[in-house]
Amino acid sequence: MKKHILPAIKLTAVMILFFTVIYPLAVWGIAQLAPNAGKGEIIEHKGKKHYVNIGQSFTEDHYFWSRPSAVDYNAAGSGGSNKGPSNEEYLAEVKARIDTFLLHNPGVDKSDIPVDLVTASGSGLDPNISVQAAKVQVQRIAKIRGIEKLKLNQLIDQQTEKPLWGIFGPEKINVLKLNIALDELK
To answer: Cα dist. 132→36, 42, 56, 106, 153 in Å?
Structure first.
């Protein structure tokens, strides 16, 4: 028994040292090489600072709407709703989001609404929407802002982020950057 306990205690001590000191220091050191020392990308717009990598709430009709958040866009309390697709409360919440979207976007069919406009992400802080989610909102924004649909579609194309190395992940659009570019379009 002594033959097994001492190596187990040593291994535990080494792992504690590695995972509580060495590994965090290595990650922190690498983060210092990133832009803004690993604190995230910050954009200043209209005198306010915004983190690009944290979802922002956009629900006004003259902007592209962001993905819903299960945590009200609170970065301190990141998390999903943890409600499954058979949960009646969750289904009612999604149905209410669909109804609200259809009310503000007449002419859009229910089947054309991308899922990312009516469901929250796993973190509740997703700053991106799909290209389809942006394009389904073009008609509303064009009408309210008096901007040609073609110009809005070009703006969407300019703001579309391609998959990492062309293969990892879907195309996506950062809603904050898109709406700032929309404001600057005038």
So the answer is: 31, 26, 19, 17, 11
Query: 160-161 and 48-51 as β-strands: parallel, antiparallel, unpaired?
Result: unpaired
Q: Which residue has the tokens 């990308």?
A: 41
- pTM passes above 0.90: no
Residues in the chain: 186
pLDDT digits (tens, 9 = 90+) for 96-144: 999 999 999 998 999 999 999 999 888 878 899 999 999 999 999 999 9
Q: Which residue has the tokens 């008609």?
A: 139
Q: Residue 182: which H helix or E strand, with range? A: helix 175-184
21: Cβ–Cβ under 8 A, 6 or more apart, which residues? none
